[in-house]
Amino acid sequence: YEQGIRVVSHTGGMPGVATSLKLYPEQNMAIVALANTSGAAPHRIAVDIAAAVVPGYKPPAPRDRSAEVATFTTPAELTGEWSGTVRMYDGSTTPIALLVKSDDVHVRLGSGDDALWTVLNTPRFRNNLLTGQFAGTIPSEEARHFPQNVGMSLLLQGDTLRGWAAAMTTDKPLTGAMSSYAELTRKPAVSSCGSRD
After folding, report:
1. pTM of the entire predicted model
2. Which of 183, 138, 133, 178 lies closest to 156 in space, CA to CA?
């Protein structure tokens, strides 16, 4: 129920796509909102449409986000150096590394002189899932055809991070994303005497 009105709803998405479906059985109405971008845009649009067409439905008051501060605090199980590969659909791989500090995450994609460390933007760690975006290029043939950033979502399982890294177009709204498999393992910590633990 939303504001006392019966609703059946479902959301969905993947990198570059988000959806919202709302069914109002008693009003014999359905609202579908689709977006070629990740995020909450379809949900907000569906709520705005419901406020306009469903009798008695009022949009919720906007949240005051001025007090919200996006801070990242690294849990102990994520802190350290991680290395692994991003595997594209054709089987080719490129190296990826993470340096997870107490308050931020740095990423290096690729190898050689062109592989620079960059900051993981808007990092989040929730339900053992590390997510964020960074400036970089996944070297697949298709991904080279458009400017991109890389979005990633990695699940922590012991000393392994597994998930996807997606080449995401930089245009607004996002018009495309191509996911690749990513897997990283934690490097052993160096003790104070210089040996690996």
Report:
1. 0.62
2. 183
